[in-house]
Here is the input.
Amino acid sequence: MKRSSWMHIDMDAFFASVEQKLDPSLKGKPILVGRVDPHGRSVPRGVVATASYEARKYGCHSGMPIYQALRLCPNCIVVGGHYEEYIKASDQVFKICARYAPKIEYISLDEAFLDFSATEWIYPDLPAGRQGLIEIARKIKEDIKREVGIIASIGIAATKVVAKVGSDYDKPDGLAYVKVGNEKKFLAPLPIADLPGIGRKMEKYFHNLGVKTLGELAVLPYKKINAWGGFAINLWEAANGVDNIWFIPRTQVKSISRSETFAKNSADESFILAMLQHLTEKSGQQMRSEGYNGRCIHVSIRYSDFRTVSRQRVLPYPTSSTKEIYEMGKVLVKELWDGRSPLRLIGIGISQFGETVQGSLFDGVRNKRLGLEKRIDNLRERFGKDAVIPASLMKLGKVKEV
Ligand code: DCP
Ligand code: CA
Here is the structure.
């Protein structure tokens, strides 16, 4: 069997680094990216989305209330988020990755797996194996620094889990290569919380059993692990350096999408966007009723000559909100469609399902919006699907569904 080679790339203090790039006077300073009010003043009960590494020295971190972070580091500068800028930086970063990696699995705005399995033939001039991969990783890091102005950390390993642990190992500005066959040895001294998926509760549970390191987890008898069920087996296998599916269930198992062929081809932007909203509404409603949240939004359009183009973007958090999915869908339509040629079909979908992250920059607004959308779903369930119709959908009339 051909050997796998994975790189895991993750930006350092992503939102904070983009803010420091936008306003160079913030460079080298402790900053917190958090919520701000419309006048640019920090909201006292806000939460830290991320802290620059200068601020982390004082113990500030993501998810911490801003007032608490300011107590630890009174000199910290609180800045508001610029979501569009994060999307732009993310696009630039992944375009650079795509110059080097034949296959990319997007995890979030600032994180992806690059598949370098069996790619020696693409890089005939580079030494095979270790040296070649390290050289490529260096080039990716350099390009990102020069072109985007932020810093990436990269882990290289034969398995995804180990590559991910590797990108965190040497952060910030890290580059870690784990030799093939050395996975277990590399993981053994690390605290169990370094393994993705181990939350605070599970960490505590293992600590109570006297298991503090991944090495200690790896030597637990399989019988004991087996009794704890599937997730424990995953963790145990990962600690033993075994490549398991780990990230696949959340990213590839399911997607929900809707598409419609128009009764008549149309180049009317307001009609096309209203149709997009109609389809998003249906997908969003299904997501909410089935309890899914997805990160990756994809849009397809088909021109009258049947030429079909699609595009996708990854949101920083999984969502099921019609509004959030639609906003991203609209951006994708504007990028895909020339704005003139008539279309015969449009589709939108959501994939990369996972848990919603709490304590993020946009939580307050997002929770309110989701609550409202769920209430509308309930109304529709009770009084029929036309009980609440957004104004932009009124003009659609009846449409043909495929
Ligand atoms: N984020 C957020 N709220 C959280 C966690 C993260 O808004 N509770 C946002 C801000 C981060 C971005 O997502 O910049 C990426 O998250 P990471 O966990 O990768 O953290 P950073 O990139 O900030 O730091 P690191 O250098 O540790 O990767
Ligand atoms: Ca990051």
The first strand starts at residue 6 and ends at 11.
